Amino acid sequence: MMSTGAFDRVLWIVLDSVGVGELPDADQYGDRGANTLASLARAFRERTGRSLRVPGLERLGIGNVTHVEGVPPRAPGDGEGACGRAIEQSAGKDTTTGHWELAGLILRDPFPVFPRGFPQEVVDRWARENGLPGVLGNKPASGTEIIVELGEEHLRTGKPILYTSADSVWQVAAHEEAFGLERLYAVCRSARRICDELGVGRVIARPFVGNPATGRPFTRTHHRHDFSLKPPGPTYLDALQAAGIDVLAIGKISSIFAGQGVTGSIETEGNTHGVQIILDSMRSRRPGLIFCNLLDFDMLYGHRRDVAGYAHALEEFDLALPGIQALMGPRDLLVLTADHGNDPTHGGTDHTREYVPVLAFTPAQQRPGPIDLGTRSSFADIGATVTQALLGSEGTPPGAQSFLSALLGA
User: Fold this and answer.
1) What is the sign, positive or negative, of the torsion defined by CA atoms of 95, 233, 373, 330?
2) Angle at 294 between CA 198 and CA 238, to 5 degrees
3) Whole-prediction pTM value?
4) Which residues neighbour 247 within 8 Å (Cβ) at sequence distance 6 or greater?
5) Dihedral of alpha carbons 276, 292, 337, 242, sign
6) How far from the centroid of its chain's Cα atoms is residue 154's Cα?
7) Secondary element (H or E) of residue 123
8) Does a cis peptide bond (omega within 30 degrees of 0) precede residue 119?
9) How far is the C-alpha of 153 from the C-alpha of 135, rounded, in Å?
10) Rounded to 5 degrees, what angle do the CA atoms 406, 407, 409 make?
């Protein structure tokens, strides 16, 4: 079915973890002072002697949203598109909560977390159900550090590595070759059923390869897979699907929504692959919603507190931005945002509770940009805008404020 709104196609890209400053309640999460983008730019200049180079994002007004060293704000008429930021209403700072709110589902109660690991009787049940010889870990940990700590014991014993974090996640690390990728997915599907009872947000399969005994360090692969709790209510994706609008999920989007509201899904092997799929989908003139999560910012660099890697990944995306815009016509809309923060200079290795950027662009825009969208009262305003763009005025969901009219100058 063709769109009934002002646009035939919306490209919605989540720059995973690219937050733009602490939320008012950040201190309740231990995140006072966090600002992923500002901290990244400052630390990158201090460590490399040069500024962050993101001219595409600069034209859209990213420097207007928060102070970014080397990326000045743009006055109206000296850029393009529109810019602003959005506040999270849901409790938490995890991937699932952020994406669900983007799609209009606000959670007042946070997902449960397990700072001392999962109850032993639950872990024992999981091991029995899957014929496992035992389980290693069962504690909060960094995903890269725990495979260094327990990877060799895992190879020796065949016991999978179970760990969690400050988020509501049941993560299972196992050797892709010795344990088997399909077996890892199978035990994670079993864990998902248990985690449905516990209310845990996500079960994540974390495969890795290598063997230090043979000179190959352990390395995580891109065969990660998320098994999410089903959304407890309808989202904007459901509204689009019900109206016959194609919803293509790229990266981990389908997993986050447990496939709900999604008509097609393509897994990715990182940011570069995700951008290539976006470009291919645009060249095919595929209508509807193209919804993509670019996860490397968070998974490879934010959690590892890798300032240089994070900065280079952001610059790489910025280099691809003009190519994306060049494929857009007057009935195309581009929306860029994030789902939470992950300040690479902040203490610990977990997400940070922050505002997310709101950047939008369409060749149909009449007013000179960047247009100031201000501070949106919820991430849901972003999904409301996407929905209205494709469904028209009747597609504006209650409880959220679309910024489409501001973008188009109405």
Assistant:
1) positive
2) 60
3) 0.89
4) 237, 240, 241, 261, 262, 263, 264, 288, 289, 291
5) positive
6) 29
7) helix 120-130
8) no
9) 11
10) 65
Angle at which helices 271-283 and 307-326 pack, to 10 degrees?
Answer: 0
How far apart (Å, rounded) are the C-alpha atoms in residues 346 and 390?
39
Which among 74, 50, 46 is positioned nearest to 62, based on CA atoms? 74
- The CA-based dihedral angle spanning residues 211, 271, 234, 360, taken in that order and rounded to the nearest 10 degrees: 160
pLDDT exceeds cutoff 90 at 347: no
Q: Which two tokens stand for residue 124?
A: 């024992």
3-state secondary structure of 326: helix
Give the C-alpha distances (Å, rounded to integers) separating 128 from 65, 120, 197, 271, 274: 51, 12, 17, 38, 38
User: Which pair of tokens denotes residue 292?
Assistant: 């993509």
31 contacts 333 by C-beta, under 8 angstroms: no
- State both tokens at 361: 């662009």
Looking at the DSSP assignment, which residues form a beta bridge with residue 207? 174
Helix, strand, coil fractions of the chain, as percent rounded to 5: 40, 20, 40
pLDDT of residue 167: 83
Give the strand pairing for 247-250 and 264-266.
parallel
Query: Residue 187 to residues 116, 138, 333, 389: CA-CA distances in angstroms?
Result: 22, 15, 40, 41
In degrees and rounded to multiples of 5, residue 165 shows phi and psi of -155, -165
For residue 370, whether the previous peptide bond is cis, meaning omega lies within 30 degrees of 0, is yes
Between the two ends of the chain, the Cα-to-Cα distance in Å is 26
Q: CA torsion sign, 292 to 297 to 298 to 300?
A: positive
Residues 351 and 342: beta-carbon distance below 8 Å: yes
58-98 pLDDT, tens digit per residue, is 999 999 999 999 999 999 999 999 999 999 999 989 899 99
For residue 59, the surrounding DSSP H or E stretch is: helix 55-59
CB 151 within 8 A of CB 164: no
Q: Three-state SS for 11? A: strand
